[in-house]
Amino acid sequence: MKAVVLAAGRGHRLGPYTADRPKCLVEVAGGTLLSRQIAALRAAGASELAIVSGWQGKSLEGRGLTVFHNTRWAQSTMVESLRCAAQWLSSTEVLVSYGDIAYTLDAARRLAKAEGALAIAYDPHWLSLWERRFTDPFDDAERFLLNADGSVAEIGGRANGPADATGQYMGLLKFTPHGWAELERVRSEAPVEVAATLDMTALLNRVIQAGRVPVVAVPAPGPWCEFDHPHDVSVGTAIVRRIDELRRISAGRQM
């Protein structure tokens, strides 16, 4: 199994934190988000790691990671960044992590063990985190609904209330080559002008609607946090410290 971190975006909403670096290199509680992502992905069984670079891409070189550079990072979506790693995705199982999140080793491990061609991690207890991040949590929450078999029934678009959000997608995915091929197939079936603008959840929702490959939903153990606004650094500092503590405890058990 391999792993890819998506870190091409400019991260404008984080303001001064990303003036000279990609979001994955923002430091929180004494370490970068990237260092924690690498630790979790390696713990989940990733033998090789890559990063998709864009904004301030040179800062991601020389870190022992394969670098796939998105030359069109300023004009393209997260989907286009993911496609930069197509040679890995088409040949082996790959864990994919957004570059602006922090999560536990167990969250990555649970996703790695998920069966199915395409799986995503989600937080079933998301509301308490969103209430700390936003004045109105439903200003940001996305629709996320499950089928009885645990697959995703709907993802993306604004959630209007609790009934629309069984959980929240975290930005952690797993693809087999078959799952990746289906994502690419669905994208190719969209009109060219639509395909160029599809974000990740919109494309995943199209995969669900196509009905050929289910999107498996994996409830992930917390804590975790997304870093999208300056306020998230304040909210996320205590969360990241707890993640670090859990990692130390895990390491101690393995000694």
What does this structure look like?
This protein is of the alpha/beta class and 255 residues long. It has a single domain, classed as Spore Coat Polysaccharide Biosynthesis Protein SpsA, Chain A. The chain has helices spanning 33-43, 78-83, 86-89, 105-112, 126-133, 177-189, 192-195, 200-210, 230-254, and strands spanning 2-7, 27-28, 31-32, 48-53, 66-69, 94-98, 101-102, 118-123, 142-146, 152-158, 168-175, 216-219, 225-226. The strands form four sheets. It has a seven-stranded mixed beta sheet with strand order 5-4-1-6-11-8-12. A two-stranded antiparallel sheet has the order 2-3. A two-stranded antiparallel ribbon has the order 7-13. Strand 2 (27-28) and strand 3 (31-32) form a beta hairpin. Helix 1 (33-43) packs across helix 4 and helix 6 (177-189) packs across helix 8. The longest helix has 25 residues, at 230-254. The model has no long low-confidence stretch (mean pLDDT 96).
Distance between the termini: 24 Å
Using the coordinates above, name the CATH class.
Alpha Beta
- In the sheet with the most strands, the strands line up as 5-4-1-6-11-8-12
- What class, by secondary structure content? alpha/beta
Number of strands: 13
**Beta content:** 15-25%
